[in-house]
What does this fold into?
Amino acid sequence: MNLPTTLSLLAVMLALAAMPSASVGLVVTRSATLGFANGVAVSMGIVLGDLVFVALAILGMGFLAESLGAYFSLLKYAGGVYLIWLGISLIRSRPDVDTDLRQSSRMSLVSSFVAGFVLTLGDVKAILFYASLFPAFVDMTSLTVADIVGIVLVTICAVGGVKLIYAYSAQRIAQSLKKRKIQDLARKVVGCIILGVGAYLIVST
It folds into this structure.
């Protein structure tokens, strides 16, 4: 890909990554409640999930969306159940519980990464999305190593960059909410949103 093509693909993917979605909600929630590091972990999981789909799309394996449909449905259910559990935990949590969660940083980071990865893999249609997006910018029948590297880097920068901005912003907002009542209300509102996203993920499977 030449520079104009690369920049065009980057612009499109930045815009798509910035759109409100379940992944954005998960990044914001983990960053606001458990700290920026957890927002980064979720973002890394999301990026890895997207790279899996990018690889499948580049290899011309879009047909896996149908042949592995049942497998991805299970992942989608698992992701939905996890989000519901996370939402309920946020709604029922108290400030001291949040402190305990922050202290178990290693466990929460792994949990955040897995949550982002599983949530992303739950959207099997992403394979078809990437398979239809890339041909508009590069000749898929004559991909070079440089093209593949360019696509991977654009995906990492666009998806990862946008999610990190969401994570940082969520943490800053959470830090500005000093009053206990405001923190409690914000936690419950975010918990309800995540619970709803999890329920939707299961129902839409």
In short: Residues 58 and 143 are 9 Å apart (CA to CA). Confidence is low (pLDDT under 50) at residues 96-104. Residues 3-9+22-78+103-179 form one domain.
